[in-house]
Design a protein that fits this description.
The complex is a heterodimer of chains A (394) and B (550). Chain A has 394 residues and is an alpha/beta fold. Chain A is 37% helix and 13% strand. Chain A is built from 13 helices and eleven strands. In chain A, strands 7-6-8-1-9-10-5-11 form an eight-stranded mixed β-sheet, with helices on both faces. Chain A has a three-stranded antiparallel β-sheet with strand order 2-4-3. Chain A is globular, with a radius of gyration of 21 Å. Chain B has a domain at 156-357. In chain B, a hairpin with a 2-residue loop joins strand 3 and strand 4. In chain B, helix 2 crosses helix 3 (57-66), helix 4 (68-77) packs antiparallel against helix 16 (340-349) and helix 7 (113-123) crosses helix 8. The relative contact order of chain B is 0.12. Classes of the chains: A alpha/beta (394), B mainly alpha (550). At the A-B interface, helix 5, strand 7, helix 7 and helix 8 of A face helix 11, helix 12, strand 5, helix 19 and helix 22 of B.
């Protein structure tokens, strides 16, 4: 059985997905609502994926090409939902809503946790897969390359946090490392605090033992940032690590919380991201493992359609991208919002999602090989949505 | 804890019941009386770790002679040591390297350690960051903001909240700076960034709390919001028309970033606002509008007190305070109208902090985050006034040991990655999960910062900056050269660095390691013992492994 990996590029802070995608047949309405932060029509790149001549921001030429090759797709109108909701139901609060919409911390945790307070959906997907496919590897396949652990936090697996290739121990020779290791293993004082301290050092020592070796086996192209470079090597080494399924969290460099100076900030960020997203696939091709990897973007929430004077505020519904060799792309998933339909937005023009993020994540979990019961256990709200698979994977 | 011990601790008896164990005079400096009991030293060290950047011999001596309560009061009566003298901020325009140098010098050596520790906690509540484009390179306003927090320890929470809300560094960080009132013709609305975070993070929190820190629940067991989206929108109208003082006009980045922001009438929304059911009348100035709004959002004082008290307890003393501990601190906070000195006293003098607990399964203690791991090792190893720490002498001041934010990448002081600061306030370590229900609600937020990269980085910093430099640790060499056995030396090192708060297993490992070196290998033996003591899990924990009497 060949290994598979999911890579989540997280846009921390709430990315304005309506800055990234524009339907050219409704350009005038777009320009009307977005005012000073609207992109010029000429700068936009048509995608030929339907949905009103959908175009992507001009700083995404390589992603546009990938989508047109059928290796990627936009996912439209998606966000945190507990169940489907329309404007009337939102106004009446007559359905269950994710608590504290528009709050970074709440919505990010709702998105990463897919409902659960302590673990992330990615961690639970891996828990479920390894529970029915043999034992967990020594080094956890639930990987974050950021300071953020919540997306890949599992219930039984550990989190592997790897932000760089790391330093080698300088003060701890083998004999001293052995001594620290014995102290880590000594559980004679079973206080939770003491256990946490031992765990903090123990995972480091395990990581050092494996990872310095692994990273040394591959020579990077030098085109990626550190996080993506580390991720690509972990995927390339998946067989050796016993990682038949891996999920890796990478922070997409922003900043995304664009209250201020949105036009220039996002233009610059997109130019960087376009290269990072596609160079990452190229790097995986160099290592011969691109056919095993699917990438997806995620974020706290979308942003208000109507700007403040300089940027946008916290919103709800959003647009995302999914790409990679296994993706059945070339066609937009979901429907682009009708800017003028008051039933599609809340006050201050925050767009109500028409897809739930968990529908995308469940599609990924099914590609991993989870059965329907396991998928329902990982995503407790999925049964509230009729479409259990968005069809972007075989 | 025995009554005798508690009395001794609070009132400052020099010692009770001397132990027969080896007690080197040099460890106590000039002390000529009986050595203190090992139990008392463990206690003093645990308390010192609450209130300083790390227990050391000097602090232990102060606490032992004054008593804990008098020591805390003496600390609070010291003048706060600022990062920079305000007068020099305008002229010198300090660099980021100088900010970090000054921060670390204060953390390691300032006499008012308690101010420094509380200000560090406050900087994780009222968060700004050098990583913001407006603040990156404008270090003097960041320093001025941090010094506002340091001085703020002497005043009330509510005054500090007001000053923070009008400080240009905060206004820039949460984009209330140059925020305009809405324009119906253009369809624009004011930026809601500060309005949302000042409620969620700086005051009442998103959900209602009791004064004991627990969430209030409705009939269905769900948490109750403190405010609505409409409240956020209305509050956002308050924080409009704020500009840098002495700037050349609206939207300009020039001007005086050390003064509070000023009102730009053209851009401030003077209409009436209704927030949480209370109306602010039309026509108020920016300053009066802000004051009125802050009064409204702090009127649910149980939410503010419960939220803030739990946070401050977690940053200083224990990660999982009992609800009675939070309640007692909340009451002190509310009854003193938010006086921060009163609150800090209530936190540090509470029996739950002072006594610790003898039951190893109870909820005491705190994990040191990587930054405190380094700082406390550094303070315990080297006397705080050693040559490596030059006092602030002016613009040229630059301490090369720790002058970059990258030393503790995820936790550079005033350099958090987001407004949520260094770690989620209620992070659970995965080491606790899967443990059944016994510790289901335990949080150890600082565990969030421990990972493969940070551990090795801190360990290597300690090695390169401190341990390898023999000059920093002459007292260890001297002890060994005086003919100490491996057992005696292990006891001395563990007493000097962990003050007896460690497991017997650590002692055994140190002795075994020392035994692999011949007696003449003084340097190697000193290094071995220090490395093992400082990299042991025991050192990451502020707790007592052995409680009770001697």
């Amino acid at each position: 059985m060949s290994s598979k990996a999911i890579v989540v590029f997280y846009m921390h802070g709430g990315h304005d997905g309506y800055n990234m995608l524009v339907p050219l047949d409704r350009y005038d309405r777009y320009a009307h609502y977005r005012g000073t932060i609207a992109q010029s029509r000429d700068s936009l790149l048509p995608l030929n994926v339907g949905q009103g001549d959908l175009a992507i921001h001009g700083n995404f030429p390589r992603m546009a090409a990938l989508i047109q090759e059928g290796k990627g797709a936009p996912i439209l109108g998606t966000g945190n939902l507990a169940q489907p909701v329309n404007r009337q139901q939102y106004d009446d609060r007559s359905v269950v809503l994710p608590p504290f919409l528009f709050s970074h911390s709440h919505q990010q945790q709702y998105n990463k946790g897919a409902y659960d307070r302590y673990s992330g959906w990615a961690g639970r997907v891996l828990d479920a897969w390894y529970a029915s496919n043999g034992s967990a590897p020594a080094l956890s396949p639930a990987v974050t390359t950021t300071g953020d652990r919540n997306l890949v936090a599992a219930e039984s697996l550990d989190v592997l946090q790897v932000q760089s290739e790391g330093e080698t121990w300088q003060g701890l020779s083998a004999a001293k490392l052995d001594a620290v290791n014995r102290l880590v293993a000594d559980d004679s004082y079973n206080h939770p605090l003491e256990r946490v301290a031992r765990h903090a050092l123990g995972t480091t020592i395990t990581g050092q033992a494996y990872l310095r070796d692994i990273f040394g086996q591959f020579t990077e192209s030098g085109k990626l940032n550190t996080a993506a470079m580390v991720a690509s090597k972990l995927i390339a080494a998946a067989d050796e690590l016993g990682h038949q399924r891996q999920i890796i969290h990478i922070a997409a460099p922003g900043p995304w919380d664009s209250h201020f100076d949105q036009f220039d900030t996002l233009n610059e960020a997109y130019a960087y991201l376009d290269n990072l997203f596609v160079d990452f696939i190229d790097e995986l091709r160099r290592y011969g493992v691109a056919d095993r990897v699917v990438c997806i973007t995620a974020s706290d929430f979308g942003r208000s359609l109507v700007p403040n004077n300089r940027g946008t505020d916290h919103g709800w519904g959003n647009n995302h991208l999914v790409w990679g060799e296994p993706v059945r792309g070339g066609q937009a998933i979901g429907n682009f919002v009708d800017y003028d339909d008051p039933d599609q937005w809340t006050g201050a023009r925050r767009l109500i999602p028409t897809l739930a993020d968990v529908q995308s994540y469940a599609t990924l979990a099914r590609w991993f090989g989870l059965d329907e019961d396991a998928i329902d256990a990982v995503f407790p709200t999925l049964r509230n949505f009729s479409q259990r698979d968005l069809g972007f994977l075989p | 804890m025995t009554d005798q011990l508690r009395r001794a601790l609070l009132k400052g008896a020099a010692c009770i019941g001397a132990t027969a164990s080896l007690w080197p005079q040099m460890a106590m400096g000039q002390s000529t009386g009986n050595p203190p009991s090992a139990a008392l030293r463990r206690h003093w060290a645990r308390l010192a770790n609450y209130a300083t950047f790390g227990a050391n011999e000097e602090t232990l001596q102060q606490i032992s002679s004054a008593g804990w309560e008098a020591w805390v009061d003496a600390q609070l009566n010291l003048p706060p040591t600022p990062l920079f003298p305000t007068a020099t901020l305008t002229t010198d325009k300090p660099t980021e390297a100088q900010l970090y140098s000054a921060w670390w010098t204060n953390a390691l050596a300032a006499p008012d350690q308690l101010h420094q520790r509380v200000a560090f906690a406050l900087s994780q509540w009222f968060v700004i960051s050098t990583r913001h484009p407006f603040l990156d390179g404008r270090t003097w306003t960041v320093i001025d903001f941090y010094d506002l927090l340091l001085r703020g320890v002497q005043g009330s929470f509510f005054d500090l909240l007001y000053q923070v809300s009008l400080h240009p560094a905060m206004c820039a960080y949460l984009s209330s700076l140059y925020n305009q009132k809405g324009d119906p013709a253009l369809g624009t609305i004011p930026d809601e960034n500060y309005a949302r975070e000042v409620m969620q993070l700086f005051t009442c929190g998103a959900e209602k709390r009791k004064r004991n820190g627990h969430f209030r629940l409705d009939g269905q067991g769900l948490r109750i919001p403190n405010y609505t989206e409409q409240d956020v929108k209305e509050l956002a109208r308050v924080f409009t028309g704020m500009g840098v003082a002495e700037a050349k006009g609206w939207g300009k980045e020039t001007g005086n970033w050390l003064r509070p922001v000023i009102e730009y009438p053209e851009y401030h929304d003077y209409g009436s606002k209704t927030i949480m059911g209370t109306e602010i009348p039309a026509g108020l100035s920016l300053q009066d509008d802000v004051r009125a709004a802050l009064e409204i959002i702090t009127k649910y004082e149980h939410s503010v007190a419960g939220n803030f008290s739990r946070f401050m307890i977690q940053r200083l003393t224990v990660s999982n305070p009992k609800y009675t501990y939070v309640r007692d601190v909340s009451i002190a906070f509310m009854e003193s109208n938010g006086d921060l000195k009163t609150m800090v006293r209530a936190i540090l003098l509470h029996p739950d902090a002072v006594d610790g607990r003898s039951d190893p399964r109870s909820e005491t203690g705190r994990l040191k985050e990587p930054l405190l791991w380094y700082a406390s090792a550094r303070r315990a190893l080297a006397p705080p006034r050693d040559g490596a720490l030059t006092p602030i002498t002016g613009p040229a001041f630059n301490n090369s040991e720790l002058n970059t934010g990258g030393t503790f990448a995820e936790q550079s002081p005033v350099g958090a990655l987001s407004v949520f600061s260094f770690f989620p306030r209620e992070h659970q370590s995965e080491a606790i999960r899967g443990e059944g229900t016994a510790h289901i609600d335990y949080v150890y937020p600082e565990a969030y910062l421990y990972n493969w990269n940070s551990v090795v980085r801190v360990s290597n910093k300690l090695w390169g900056n401190v341990i390898k430099k023999d000059a920093d640790v002459p007292r260890f060499r001297a002890f060994l050269e005086a003919g100490a056995s491996d057992e005696e030396f292990a006891d001395f090192v563990l007493d000097q660095l962990l003050f007896g708060n460690h497991r017997p297993a650590l002692r055994e490992e140190v002795i075994a390691l020392l035994g692999t070196r011949g007696a003449s290998k003084v340097t190697a033996k000193v290094r071995d013992a220090l490395v093992l003591a400082l990299n042991a899990p025991d050192f990451l924990v502020n707790n007592t492994y052995q409680e009770g009497g001697q």
